[in-house]
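Quick one:
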Amino acid sequence: MYIEELKKKQGNKIYNSILIRESYRDNGKVRHRTIANISKLPVEHIRQLKASLKGEKGDFKISDLGVGCSYEYGGSFALRELAKDIGLDTAIFSRKTQWRENILAMILGRILYQGSKLNLVNTYMDTALWEIAGHNFGVRPDVEKDCYNPMDELLKRKDIIERKLAKKHLKQGAILLYDITNTWLEGEYNDSEIVKYGRGKGGKHGFKQVSIGLLTNAEGCPVGIEIFKGNTSDQTTVLDQIKKISEKYGIKEAVFVGDRGMLTQKRINEIDSDYFKIVTALTHTELSTIIEKENIQMDLFDEMNITEIIDSENKEMRYMLCKNEKEKIKERNTREVLIKKVEALLGKKAAVKQKRDKQKTCAGIGRIFEKTKIEKFFLWNVDDNGKLTWSRKEQKIEEEKLLDGCYVIKTNVSKVMNKENVVGAYQGLQKVEQAFKNMKTVLLVLRPIHHKSDDRITAHIFIVMLAYYLQWHFMQRVAPLFACDGKGSEKRWSLDIILKRLKSINRIEQLIKNVVIKTNISKPDVEQNEILKLLKVKL
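Output:
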């Protein structure tokens, strides 16, 4: 380690720099690097430091070269660079403005830190996130000015942003995956047009909620999100989405893939099949009907092979008969558990000896079956004294067992798309389900939603979708890590672990006599360099 004085001439001025330098070997060659710029130190301190480096005694020691603040840098920088590389920043707004950078900070923060806007703002001393967004390090951003107001600007551009994403990731004739979920909110929303009581998914009932429709391409990359009233049924959103795809995205021909409860025959009939084809699955009721109508033999359901048949009445409609052994076991076990649960509840009611109100008893049994959806497997009766008798429909249960693991994919796409691709398109809905899982609970933590206005709720959910868009691209780039990863206890990589490795790359302030002379970035290790290389990011 040594001190070097440099002079640089610019125009008529000469600039002096005093640097602490060190020598090191790189592949056998001697190289030099700057440790710190000490030009701002008092002359006496520089003199004493020179003496200390030469081994002379003095008041100033090399140990006075210390570390001030150390804070997260690698995760925030890598994600911001990735957002730039995939064009997310310009999709939000073409020019670099402070509100755009604040929105990007919230998108990055959703991936790296989750939590509320207030919690994110309070990370200003622990991360370079806000510094990268254009704020002075150590100065706390303002929640209203730097978070809430930019959300209002973002919402104004929602349609424009989605059109840009669709243009990049969709093309004419594309396969589009669509699904709907909901998220519940707490508190009073009496003036809200979208927060309503509705049937919650995932077993959450009795709360006000909003419904969320997510549209992705065949690979699961999100391109658009729509917020519906909490009491909106899944099937009623389909035509709105088709209209949005056609009018806003400019996609005039596509294959629309939706869940069995969404694409009912009524909705299919309302879709212009000349331009939009559908891929969906039959409900259990429809499955039983088609088996009976088409006289389908159960041995046509084969786990290894897909059987295709044509609808006898509508020659444009094709059915793919499939079977999944794992689902067979799962469905059978689930049904048996529910039946035993209901039997226990019915047994308690039947054991009551005193006279009971018949109407109330029937209402209670109705609630049991409403919750479990298995009334078809039981015969039951309540007499005038409120006495319950019941029995299993064993034949019905056995008939249902034959359908366990069997499912039928339904489509009006021509044979240009073969049966394997049709089934693959429907199975692609799992990608949307995974997206919802990531957005709601696992990684991006959509809830709790602290906003009260409909616009802010919508903007918040849109930010989470854009965070998932960035995260999706992130996962595409680091995919090689997972491809060669082990299994079980040998498994090393997950998204959480990768982000933690990046977040451990810090920016460090170097001090001499408590004076900040330089900020350095901690040197990435081998694994961190591998991640950065896959992301195409240079620190």
